[in-house]
Amino acid sequence: MRPLLLVLLALLLLAPLFLPPFYITLLNFVAFGSLVALGLYLLTGMAGMTSFGQAAFMGLAAYATALLTTKMGLSPWLTLPIGLLFAGVGALVLGGLTVRLKGHYLPLSTIAWQMALFIVLGSWTALTGGHTGLPDLPAVSIMGFSFRTEDSFYYLSWAFALLAAWGAANLTGSRVGRALRALRGDAVAAASFGVHPPSLKLQVFLLAALLAGLAGWLYAHFLRFVNPSPFGLEASIKYLIMAVVGGIGSIPGVFLGASLITGLEEWLKDILPKVFGRTGNYEVIAYGLVLVVILILAPRGLWPFLERYLPHPTPRRPQGMGLPARQVQGLEVPKGEVILEVERLSKAFGGLLAVCDLSFQLRRGEVLGLIGPNGAGKSTCFNLITGVHAPTKGQVRFKGQAISGLAPFTVHEKGIGRTFQHPHLFPEMTVLENAALGTYARTRAGMLSCLLGTNRREEAAALSEAYRALERVGLAELAHHKAGGLALGQQRLLEIARALASSPEVLLLDEPAAGLRAAEKLELARLIRRLAAEGITVLLVDHDMDLVMGLVDRVVVMHYGEKLAEGTPREVQKNPKVIEAYLGQEVA
User: Fold this and answer.
1) Were both Cys, which of 31, 185, 280, 586 would link to 426 (CB 3.0–4.6 Å)?
2) How many domains does the chain contain in total?
3) Per the domain annotation, does 109 fall within a domain?
4) Each residue of 463-495: pLDDT tens digit?
5) CA atoms within 13 A on the CB side of 86
């Protein structure tokens, strides 16, 4: 893979020496398109948010530099941060209003503001020149050298494009990159390990807009002329098609798609008028046909299809010292004292009362079983404790502080980890990356640090910590396999490893033995006993009564959302109400 990358870089560097000016101009447009598509890789490919409005941010920066250089005489380099500021402010305002939208509402809203900006740029003749545009932008220059020709500008545009790709690659392999991919797959699971979905979505929305703004600044000073046409809805659709055709989930795919669509666009402008006998914007139709064909033959885009035939580096064990112990929030609770208290907790979903007036206490260092028939409200109780649902009434207290109603990422940061009744994993990520998501709340590198690659030491420590967690559950040999290929029992173990990587004080295990074989259940029981001996408090839900009764210190029995009984395993097994409702009579 690395030799291929070096060859491609060498060809890029030497291209102006053997290609005619027309193709160098096309390569400049490929660089501009790649910058916008890189933003879509981060926004859509990683975070799962679809935008049809990236050309709007490109236009904001382009018009900002055009107005400031032509009407105020500012240097183009001085207008670069100002143009990015315009694009960034637009992203913060629009993103703050729309990134919380789900489903088709987000892309529809991006279409609305894209069209609105296009209308403003075309109508505000006194300022923007209307559809005639603004001509005579000054050329970009450095120390007396002017980037006036397509050959000289080529190196400037590709320097920015490759720098952006390097930053995107750094971000992809970081804690922020894992969190973004987790948001795309399952925002609830991501939030349960410390990820703040609204904040992170807004950050990546801003970053994608800045990349589009940079492309707009380069575009304006390359042509030295701007008008609204390159910043309309059709342009935004073209950039999204670039990313999808090449493979929106990969950085090389972005460049491949930008090259293909840019070249195809020029070719179609010559061919289609001859076919239809007149000029028109027939390219959009052709884009759609090309997209349909590629998605049928290669559903994930061209690059993932080609990547299968390229050599892959041999994965290695992460090298690092691991992360320091989690900083305990709040007061230290001595062993045996109450660490988690559920008091008269209730949750209603419409007319259904899933949990009703439930109370119990969890003491530090113990293993408490929460059992009951299907539909008893056990998983709902877990969701109430971890902040996935807000209670209708009642309270949850952790180390004496009320946590009911707090967001899942806030609850997790206090020291509560969990698994889910049905495994909430991210199949496109490796087993190691899934486990490393558990270290999110224990690491601190922000988006800028991840982009610049200054987080390498912390990242190595996080991956090492995740690998150790995989060793504890027996999955280390599968660390570099995709999580989507795991059997159900292995998925359960991976969820436990992810929770262990977060170094929780209290661990909530929701049916961890489901799908495990008998030998694996014995190993799970030994693991839980070791965790309890290390001081981790465990709240366990499972239907395997042999496992539960042989493992826990106390049992709480739920039935139709209410607490039916509480006591030691021996006491609960002899309770007539429990026998009648759940355990059943032993056959003589």
Assistant:
1) 185
2) 3
3) yes
4) 999 999 999 999 999 999 999 999 999 999 999
5) 23
